[in-house]
Amino acid sequence: MKELKTVKLLVVHCTATRCNKPFSVESLINCGVGKYGQCSYHYYVRLDGTVVPLLPESVQGVHARGYNSCSLGVVYEGGLDAQGNAYDTRTAEQKHTLYALLKELTRSYPEARIIGHRELPHVAKDCPCFPASKEYADLQPGNRG
Length: 145
Hints:
By secondary structure, the chain is α/β, with parallel strands linked by helices.
């Protein structure tokens, strides 16, 4: 595993799994290990709002091609409705926890911008199924109080 050099971005993702089917921590880890040889993300926010730390912040994740060396990956469980369509499925608990986690991370990385995976150049996915940079506008550099 590579060491993370700097944190310029906090990239928000969804697991792209159906909101009515739980996606275990082990399943998430195994997806990353199967594709990339390691876990992909730094933090996992479960349906009930529980945060599961996955990778140390000092370790480079594999969640945003071209940006892994300068970002932390935060993923929430869900992102697809019961029929499998991309949709903002975050529970009230997930919304609360994501905000609190990102606020905490911006204290450690005051220059880091918050962005959704789909907001990165050349990404043709709906992930995380909501406009993260706008939703967390008050946590962006220059807007923090």
